[in-house]
Amino acid sequence: MSIKRVLTVATFALASAVTSSAFAHAKLQSSDPQAGSTLDTAPKQVRLKFNEALEPAFSKIKLTGPQNNEIPVTATTVDKADPTIMTAPLPALSSGEYHIQWSTMTHDGHKAKGEVTFKVK
Question: How far apart are CA 121 and CA 117, in angstroms?
Fold first, then answer.
């Protein structure tokens, strides 16, 4: 293989790696309650774990209940010891299906949002 070809391939590989990391967004790795779960008792909090550190000022959790009514979530926090974890306490929940909508921004300024659904028996 010629040196020119090796340099071309190496340049392309490096550019691909830099571009893919530059467009990375926070991805939800796990949730408690788990997505799609049916619980015997209502959870007392939401805990979301991401693959990147989050900006606390731009990290929010919203909860809607069985009749699509918004349920107040008082204090969304990003863990200071592990900024990849966002939590919020929940009020007492009755039986039904709930939707956790989350939104956040990472330290590099990328925004992300998503939803986790769970049921309480």
Answer: 14
Name the DSSP class of 68: S
Averaged pLDDT, groups of 10, the chain, 121 residues long: 51 44 75 98 98 96 96 94 97 97 92 97 97
Contacts of 105 by beta carbon, 8 Å cutoff, 6+ apart:
26, 54, 55, 58, 59, 111, 112
AA letter at 47: R
Provide the token pair at 27.
């991805």
B/e letters for 91-109, b = 16+ CB within 10 Å, e = fewer, are eebeeeebbbbbebbbeee
> Coil, helix or strand for 38?
strand
